[in-house]
Amino acid sequence: MSEQKLRFLVVTAHPHDFTHAAATCGIHTARGDSVTVVSVGHGVYTHNERSHGELMKPPAQRDRSILDETAEDYSAVKSQELREACRVFGISDVRILGVPEPFRLSKSPETVERLRDIILEVRPHVMIAQ
Description:
39% of the residues lie in helices and 19% in strands. It contains five helices and four strands; from the N terminus they run βαβαααβαβ. The chain has helices at residues 22-30, 49-55, 64-67, 71-88, 110-122; strands at 7-12, 34-41, 93-99, 126-129. The N and C termini lie far apart (35 Å).
């Protein structure tokens, strides 16, 4: 009799927050369990280390290409970083909802239905959320 494979669903606020569950996910993908990662936000207004680093420099030393980066460009960078980090841990099912930040249920009530649909699709045995 073979051991049952588990389905995990990880829901984070921002792409960067996957790091809080990455090792657990890696252990389970190595065991053959499936993991789906969902980032509710796109991370544009949080965890922007590049912009922060530039703003900490004296004005004459700042890289304008980083400071002038559009939200869409930075969102694409954060999405790619999340996908690459998940790939390291054996995860290919990565979903970024791109809900506007800061998240307010009153401004994005459809988010509840979107998450519900993902839960019903994945049918996780284990759910990890912030």
